[in-house]
Design brief:
InterPro entries: ARMT-1-like_metal-bd_sf, ARMT1-like_metal-bd, PH1575-like
Number of strands: 6
Organism: Longicatena caecimuris
CATH architecture of the largest domain: 3-Layer(aba) Sandwich
Largest sheet: 6 strands, mixed
Helix content: 40-55%
Number of helices: 12
Order of helices and strands: HHHHHHHEHEHEHEHEHE
Protein name: Damage-control phosphatase ARMT1-like metal-binding domain-containing protein
Pfam families: ARMT1-like_dom
CATH class of the largest domain: Alpha Beta
Structural class: alpha/beta
């Protein structure tokens, strides 16, 4: 997905909001100038997650005292979801279409995103989770997904955030049950970035106990194929089908001609408009859909 003016404007606005409470006006001015320098000198083919990664690093260097304690946040959400694991698994197994419900739950899990959202409300998330089956899957895209899963041999599942990764695990379990011929690999981030899922999070939810897990070799949101490791790039090339979670994976992978199905929650106005959905509604989207050009 190419960079666009609205995303740049949104990014600048977020930086202004983040530093507004700081008292050192000279430091704030210098910081905003550096932000504009990064954006102004970027290439058109750069992705927004790649630029955000550079700006997040600048923020942490300039205002280290203001960086949120993401390690503790991630631990909290992983523990919260693990405590619910057995009950959610039972709920999935009781559904007439267990795979569809697991997909709906995994989409809701994409709400836990401290990068896209100004505030993550745990109670709002739990409410979305309880009503996950009300957000019905697009029947044509779901049918196409099942057909492609039946025909595939290798599936790459690209995770997104902490907490959410537990729901990814439960979806992968359903994929393994319904498509036992599939060889499934899960991919996480290669280093700490906001509350994105890494190997530590995969270990927290015991994802390695059910499938092979690799990291993408870089600490940034999304999966930018120009910057990931050779191992991660090869895993993408070898996959017959890819399930990619979240907006950042959409922003970095869409338009590359890959066999990707995207599972995400619309968390910003641009994505809501792109898919003609209200905010906090789920998306199941395939790369070949006409909407790619929007």
């Amino acid at each position: 997905m190419e960079m666009n003016a609205r995303c740049i404007a949104c990014l600048i606005k977020k930086q202004d909001e983040k530093i507004r409470k700081e008292n050192d006006e000279k430091k704030k001015l210098s910081y905003m100038k550096e932000v504009l320098h990064i954006l102004g000198n970027s290439k058109d083919e750069e992705t927004m997650p790649w630029l955000s990664n550079q700006i997040d690093a600048l923020y942490a260097k300039t205002f280290p005292h203001a960086v949120l304690p993401y390690a503790a946040i991630k631990k909290h959400y992983n523990e919260m979801m693990c405590a619910m694991e057995a009950d959610i698994r039972k709920q999935i197994q009781c559904k007439e279409d267990a795979l569809a419900y697991a997909i709906q739950l995994a989409r809701v899990g994409n709400y836990i995103d401290f990068g896209a959202l100004d505030e993550v409300d745990a109670n709002f998330f739990l409410d979305l989770l309880a009503k996950a089956d009300e957000d019905v899957l697009d029947s044509q895209k779901y049918a196409a997904l099942k057909q492609d899963l039946a025909n595939a041999q290798r599936l790459l599942y690209i995770c997104d955030n902490c907490g959410e990764i537990l729901l990814d695990k439960l979806l992968i379990e359903q994929l393994q049950f319904q498509y036992p011929h599939l060889s499934i690999t899960a991919m996480v981030r290669g280093g700490e970035v906001i509350n994105d899922a890494t190997m530590i999070d995969a270990q927290d939810v015991h994802l390695q106990s059910i499938c092979h897990v690799i990291d993408n070799g870089i600490a940034m949101a999304g999966t930018d194929i120009r910057h990931i490791s050779q191992q991660a790039f090869q895993a993408i090339q070898d996959a017959d089908i890819i399930l990619a979670k979240g907006q950042a994976n959409f922003e970095t992978l869409c338009g590359n001609g890959l066999p990707v199905y995207y599972l995400l929650l619309c968390k910003c106005d641009l994505f809501a408009e792109r898919f003609s959905l209200p905010k906090y509604k789920g998306v199941l989207f395939h790369e070949d859909s006409p909407s790619t050009s929007q």
